[in-house]
Amino acid sequence: MKTQKTILLIHPPVAKPCEPPAGIAKLAGALRANGISCRVFDANLEGLLYLLDHRPAVDDTWSRRAVMHLPKHIDDLRTESLYAGMDRYKRAVADVNRVLHVAGLAHGVQLTLANYQDPELSPVRSRDLVAAARHYRKNPFSPFFEKRLDGLFSEQMPDIVGFSVNFMSQAICAFAMAGYLRARHPGIRIVFGGGLITSWMRIPGFDDPFEGIVDDLVAGPGEGALLALCGRAEKAVVADAGYDFTGFPVDRYLAPGFILPYSASDGCYW
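^ thats the sequence. predicted structure below, dont judge the formating
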């Protein structure tokens, strides 16, 4: 009989793909320090690279040029010399964003390296987030995350899947991924946390509108909540567990070197 819980932590699209997510690294550090089996999945970085590799056909001059130079731009964004010239850097980012823009248009959304906007779905309307979950196949990342999640689950089926949702630009895609999990793997416990979720839950009178999609919403630091779900609350070692970046594709981020993110404090000093 299985006794120990296993967890998969997900960083959903879209956020700047220049560094591994600090929040998930901190959660992973606390879980692993307590002997919990934990894997991480940067769906943001991998999803953006997937769309760049599986872009639709283009017919305008700018898009054709951007596609032609795309491999070099990606390599350059990982090379220190690019950042010595602002014009070259701006051109590389503009061309990469152009390719993502075209990929997004095929699904009716506006997409860049740092933003995701759907004219039909708003991340500030709960009914739209529920719709994103129900109609997950409309999401431009759906072919990617369906195949990738199935692969991860074939390696090891998690008991809990946690989403770290910190920005408005991540909300629609996070709910689309949760919708897929709920349809495909209804027995998995889905947990949402992160800065955006925390801000929603601290609105006076907040009433969870995501029943049936998300099992648990967590406000503030999530280490204690995840450890409690794994039955480790009484023995939990949370403080000073550190950040664990094991499992992140550190050589694939669009930066000239490894960026080490960390949090110097909890909450807002204002």
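DSSP finds nine helices and seven strands in the chain.
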